[in-house]
Specification:
29 helices, 14 strands, alpha/beta, 3-stranded antiparallel β-sheet, 2 domains, NXPE4_C, Rossmann fold
């Protein structure tokens, strides 16, 4: 509600999420780096006018541009403090006018007359000096009102072409005030603020020429003024927060940061988004027309009667016959409605967004809760093989739920949690290597149909989101990652000589041939991981560059690929060893039986538990994310293998699974992708707020919708996969050509769009 009016909210309301972390009402505040601040304010003139409080705000503001600057190093001339950035022409001035009087009016008037260059940003505020020197008299307040009334039209005139902010006075901590300031009471400050708001608001009839009231500082001061050194001036952290708010108000519409939704206009629809909107609209209309025709035909068939016998004749069709076209339109109809919800949540300024804020309780309490639920829904498995379907679904399910909690709680700032989540992502890729290797090794099916089915199921949702949400393919990094690794697994096993289990059973030498293939794969991975230039050259050629570039380069793709570069190979090798042991009956997979002999099982179980805990201790003791990321690709497999052995060696543990986790595991890919826009917000940087003011209720409602949407998209993808990817090779080839034409057209429209932007 009123999600689009974020500038007013940013300037007037908010709350502290934690110490020094300010959350504006309804929107996200970006934390500007000094380089970003310089780019925003290049060729800009910023002026602060007022008393010592405004001077301190001025100091905090210039430190956003140059953190190394010292307050005593700023040039001062007759009450004028001036700073000019060396790297860019940014002029910032503080003008000492502690009272709203004729002198201040004359200075402001000079800007309106054109005799002096008009500033781009003007920040004004004063009152406490008037209260002090006039001993809080009512006559001083009356004169203050007269002076503001005379200045208001001038400020309004400046506001037509400049950003003008009137800073309301912060409350004071009366117990700490010196004797010379005891007359500055909160009651007097409220009276001066009330006068300023009433006069400035009543004079501003034109919304474009409105003086913006900077009242949020009062709310910040109410929480922090007790930490003031003198009871009058805010502590440094509060002044820095006010300066960051000012920077967001002015710069967000210029810099358009992803995690700064405050004061950002809604992005215009691109040409591709308009085409997608028309397509989904036509699909909805087409589905409604066809379903209406079929329903009428069904009613006619049902009501036909044998007039001679007087008995109902058996209808030609007993149930509505859903044609392929109707099912196709139905899928696109539902998908169109879902994509509309996606767009409204994360592109339109309809719903509110808030920043994440990490606390240990916000992460660990939900983890405990879902683990209890998972254990409660325990059932027997249909089969007791290692990593059977129910078990892998369960594994994917609980990992996905933990990752979701990790994202919404902002736990990436806590390094031990981050390192454990990295293992969960690696475990997904491990399953990719294990699952696809097992399929190709056992089935020996290297047909185009299988490849297209897998690629369609992996990429369909992401391709649609790239079009609807105007995001590059690499933005949804996990799908490109599993897609590329699937193709690598396929190429490794499909290339001559094709070695599958059936062929290897006839001659053991084929096993060595497969191991040689795996060694060649490992060598290629190793070489590419230490040759960034070669890697970037491979993925910088068109059309690969269109898929894997993010912000104009493939560095992000290089980082993501390198982070888990060995784990898919580990999954393939584990599958090969496991299937070999299974073939030679060296493991026991009966219900309730340990995987090996009791002695071997106990030893392996002990080693697994120790290895699991050792990795957790190492990850929890990490101090540097970069160093830990360097070790992660080589050591993540330790905890993954330890978990597999702990989960599968005891027969009674292998024979049960959590149906709760398994249900989520079946839609884990959709959950991972959908969270970007309809559970989180601002492309995962914030949290979607459907119900403001009630955080827990909001999470419950948004989570329910999010899970339902993910489940529905999973069903739509499965239905479309059966229609779009036929088993007939000739038909499949024609459709592949059509898809290639579609993406060529998409590339053309994208090029036209880029040209129009430039």
């Amino acid at each position: 509600f009123k999600g689009g009016d974020t500038c007013e909210y940013l300037l007037s309301s908010g709350r502290f999420l934690g110490e020094k972390v300010w959350q504006p009402h309804s929107c996200m505040m970006h934390k500007y780096k000094n380089s970003e601040a310089k780019n925003c304010l290049i060729d800009k003139h910023v002026v602060f006018i007022g008393d010592s409080r405004i001077r301190q705000l001025f100091y905090s503001f210039i430190k956003l541009i140059n953190p190394q600057i010292k307050e005593e190093g700023i040039k001062s001339t007759d009450g004028l403090l001036s700073l000019q950035s060396n790297s860019a022409f940014i002029l910032q001035d503080f003008l000492w006018y502690p009272e709203v009087n004729g002198s201040m009016r004359q200075r402001i008037k000079s800007w309106t007359e054109g005799s002096v260059a008009k500033p781009h940003i003007i920040v004004v505020g004063a009152a406490t000096w008037s209260i002090k020197i006039h001993n809080g008299s009512n006559e001083a307040l009356a004169q203050y009102k007269i002076n503001i009334t005379s200045i208001a039209p001038l400020l309004e005139k400046l506001a037509i072409s400049s950003d003008v902010y009137w800073v309301l006075q912060d409350p004071v901590y009366e117990d700490m005030l010196s004797e010379s300031r005891k007359m500055i009471t909160n009651e007097k400050i409220d009276a001066y603020n009330e006068a300023a708001v009433r006069i400035l608001n009543s004079s501003s009839r034109n919304s474009k020429a409105k003086v913006k009231m900077f009242s949020v500082s009062k709310l910040i001061a109410q929480e922090t003024i007790m930490k003031s050194a003198d009871g009058l001036h805010l502590p440094e952290s509060s002044r820095d927060t006010n300066a960051m708010i000012l920077m967001n108000v002015y710069c967000n519409k210029i810099m358009k940061p992803i995690d700064g939704s405050c004061c950002q206009p809604q992005p215009p629809l691109t040409l591709i988004q308009k085409i997608a909107f028309c397509f989904f609209t036509l699909s909805i209309i087409g589905y409604l027309i066809i379903s209406l025709i079929h329903r009428n035909n069904f009613r006619k068939n049902k009501s036909c009667t044998d007039l001679e016998s007087g008995e109902d004749r058996k209808p030609a069709i007993s149930t509505p016959n859903v044609s392929t076209l109707e099912m196709l339109l139905q899928c696109f109809c539902k998908l169109g409605l879902i994509m509309t919800y996606f767009y409204l949540c994360d592109r339109a300024n309809l719903f509110m967004k808030e920043n994440k804020f990490y606390t240990h309780s916000s992460f660990f309490i939900p983890i405990v809760y879902i683990l209890v639920l998972g254990v409660f829904y325990t059932e027997n498995t249909k089969e007791t093989k290692v990593l059977n379907r129910e078990q892998t679904d369960e594994w994917k399910g609980w990992m996905q739920l933990v990752i979701l909690i990790y994202h919404i709680s902002g736990a990436s700032t806590f390094l031990p949690v981050y390192m454990h989540i990295r293992v969960l992502v690696a475990a997904y890729l491990f399953q990719t290597g294990y699952g696809h290797f097992s399929y190709f090794w056992i089935k020996g099916d290297f047909g185009v149909y299988r490849v297209c089915q897998v690629l369609f199921r992996l990429n369909f949702l992401v391709v649609v989101l790239c079009i609807v949400m105007d995001r590059p393919y690499q933005f949804y990094y996990f799908v490109p990652l599993v897609t590329v690794w699937f193709m690598i697994i396929y190429a490794t096993l499909a290339v001559w000589p094709q070695i599958v289990q059936k062929k290897a059973n006839g001659n053991c030498l084929w096993h060595f041939g497969l191991l040689l293939k795996l060694i060649c794969l490992l060598t290629c991975i190793y070489i590419l991981s230490y040759s960034q230039g070669a890697f970037e050259k491979i993925f910088s050629f068109w059309p690969l560059s269109k898929c894997f570039e993010l912000n104009g380069n493939v560095y992000e793709w290089w980082f993501r690929w390198k982070l888990d570069r060995y784990v898919v190979f580990h999954g393939m090798l584990f599958a090969f060893i496991y299937l070999a042991l299974q073939k030679h009956q060296m493991i026991s997979e009966g219900k309730g039986d340990p995987l090996f002999s009791n002695r071997v099982s106990n030893v392996l179980l002990f080693i697994s538990v120790v290895s699991f805990l050792t990795y957790s201790i190492w990850a929890s003791s990490c101090k540097n994310k970069t160093e830990c990321n360097e070790l992660h690709p080589s050591v993540s497999v330790v905890q993954i293998l330890a978990f597999i052995l702990i989960r599968n060696i005891p027969g009674y543990v292998r024979s049960v699974y959590s149906s709760f986790f398994a249900w989520f595991g079946k839609i884990s890919l959709e959950l991972f992708i959908c969270q970007y826009h309809i559970w989180l917000a601002a492309d995962t940087k914030g949290i979607l707020v459907l119900i403001p003011g009630y955080p827990m209720f909001n999470v419950l409602v948004s989570t329910f919708i999010f899970v339902c949407v993910a489940h529905e998209i999973s069903q739509i993808t499965n239905d479309l996969a059966q229609i779009v990817v036929p088993k007939d090779n000739s038909t499949l080839l024609k459709r592949l050509l059509c898809i290639a034409g579609f993406f060529s057209g998409l590339h053309f429209f994208s090029a036209v769009q880029d040209q129009s932007r430039h």
